[in-house]
Write a structure and sequence with these properties.
Blueprint lengths: L1 H40 L8 E7 L7 H14 L5 E7 L20 H8 L4 E9 L7 H9 L1 H6 L6 E8 L6 H12 L5 E2 L11 E4 L10 H21 L5
Helix pairs in contact: 2-7
Length: 243
C-alpha cells in the first residue's frame, strides 16, 4: 500500500511537471510570436543626413578658393551616403565692413548665410579664403566680424570646422591664414580639425599656379581631400553615426 501511494505521488508530481513544461513552452512561443510586434513598436533611432558646407570667402566667384573647397566637399561626400554637401560663395552677396553701431548696414545676405550654416542638419563648415598679405581676405574678415551675433547665441557650437587657404606660393602665408581663421571660429565653440592622415597638418594648403588653377598642386589637393574627409568623419561621429 505504501508502495502504491509512493507511485501515485510520483506520477502526480511528474504529471504536474509535464503540464508546467507545456505551459512554459506555450508561454515562450507566445513571447516569441509577440517579439516582432514589440520590436516594431519600439522606436528605433533614425540616422539623418549630415550636411557639410563649404564657405568660400573669396571676392572672386568660382575661382581657386571655390575649386579647393569643392575638392574638400567631394571627399566629404565620399565618406558615406548620409553626407550631403553644399558650396556657398560670399562673392556678390553685398557684405560690407561690420560696424557695431549699425550692424544692419552693409549686411547684404548675411542672415541667409547664417541660417544655412546654423541649420541643425549641418555637421560641419569648411571655411575657405585666399591669402592676402599673409592673412585672410577682407571679405572673410567682414563675414567673421558679423558673426558676433552668432557667437553670442552659440549657433555654431559643436559643429566641426575646417579651413582651406589658397596662396600664390607654397610658403606665402597659407598656414598663417588658416591659423587666423581658426582663432576666430574657436571662439564660436566649433570643433577644429586639420587635414587628417596621412598629411595631417592644420588644414588644406593649396597653391595657385598663377593661372587660376590648382589642378597641378598634388600636395595641396591631397590636403584638401584629407580635410574634407576628416570633417565628414568627425561630424558623423558627433552625430552618433558610423565611425
Amino acid at each position: 500500500m505504501a508502495e502504491d501511494l509512493t507511485r501515485r505521488v510520483f506520477l502526480g508530481v511528474a504529471g504536474a511537471a509535464v503540464v508546467a513544461g507545456v505551459a512554459g513552452q506555450a508561454a515562450l512561443a507566445a513571447d516569441a510570436k509577440d517579439a516582432p510586434k514589440a520590436a516594431e513598436t519600439k522606436e528605433a533611432p533614425k540616422a539623418g543626413a549630415i550636411k557639410i558646407i563649404g564657405l568660400s570667402c573669396s571676392p572672386r566667384k568660382g575661382k581657386t578658393t571655390a575649386a579647393a573647397l569643392q575638392v574638400c566637399l567631394d571627399a566629404a561626400k565620399a565618406v558615406g551616403p548620409d553626407i550631403e554637401v553644399e558650396l556657398i560663395e560670399l562673392s556678390g552677396m553685398g557684405l560690407g565692413i561690420y560696424d557695431p553701431t549699425d550692424p544692419e548696414a552693409g549686411a547684404g545676405e548675411f542672415k541667409k548665410i547664417v541660417a544655412a550654416i546654423t541649420d541643425p542638419k549641418v555637421g560641419g563648415v569648411i571655411f575657405g579664403s585666399p591669402v592676402y598679405h599673409g592673412n585672410m581676405s577682407s571679405l572673410c574678415k567682414a563675414f567673421l566680424d558679423r558673426c558676433i551675433s552668432v557667437k553670442k547665441e552659440f549657433g555654431l557650437a559643436n559643429k566641426v570646422a575646417g579651413v582651406v587657404a589658397v596662396g600664390a606660393a607654397r610658403n606665402g602665408g597659407v598656414e598663417l591664414t588658416i591659423q587666423a581663421i581658426q582663432g576666430v571660429v574657436m571662439s564660436f565653440e566649433m570643433i577644429l580639425v586639420g587635414d587628417g592622415r596621412p598629411t595631417s597638418h592644420r588644414g588644406a594648403t593649396l597653391q595657385n599656379n598663377g593661372k587660376d588653377d590648382i589642378s597641378t598642386d598634388e600636395i595641396g589637393l591631397a590636403t584638401a581631400k584629407n580635410l574634407g574627409r576628416r570633417v565628414a568623419e568627425v561630424a558623423r561621429r558627433l552625430a552618433g553615426g558610423a565611425k
